């Protein structure tokens, strides 16, 4: 019996074969963040490679307060003011990161949808 208990304890402490990352859980009042496009996903990966700390701070901001008006977070204007998705129209927002990087997104029912992630200032807003 003692040997069986030891085997169970050893199995409980064995390294996972998958070694999967533990994602940060959301608080009930926080927003989930998802990619709306493959371009946004690739832009996010590229941005992480160059400005990881700024991306982590942006993610924290977008998780907590994606529609807070700040100097770096605001709705877009003119031709970029709205985005159409699934027959619905949403205000498009921009979150500015250091060095000209930009995250364009919209919010729908507790989800921040990343539409475009630019590693430098996009030509559309110059």
Strand order of the largest sheet: 1-7-6-5-2
Tell me the major beta sheet: 5 strands, mixed
The H/E string reads HEHEEEEEE
* Mean pLDDT value: 87
Distance between the termini: 73 Å
Return the structural class: alpha+beta
Helical proportion, percent range: 25-40%
Radius of gyration using CA atoms only: 20 Å
Task: Summarize the SSE layout with pairings.
Blueprint: H1 2-12, E1 32-35, H2 38-64, E2 73-75, E3 82-85, E4 88-91, E5 93-96, E6 102-108, E7 111-118
Parallel strand pairs: 1-7
Antiparallel strand pairs: 2-5, 3-4, 5-6, 6-7
Structure overview:
The protein has 126 residues and is an alpha+beta fold. 30% of the residues lie in helices and 27% in strands. It has two helices and seven strands, in the order αβαββββββ. It has helices at 2-12, 38-64, and strands at residues 32-35, 73-75, 82-85, 88-91, 93-96, 102-108, 111-118. The strands form two sheets. It has a five-stranded mixed β-sheet. A hairpin with a 5-residue loop joins strand 5 and strand 6. The longest helix is centred in the middle third of the chain and has 27 residues, at 38-64. The model has no long low-confidence stretch (mean pLDDT 87).
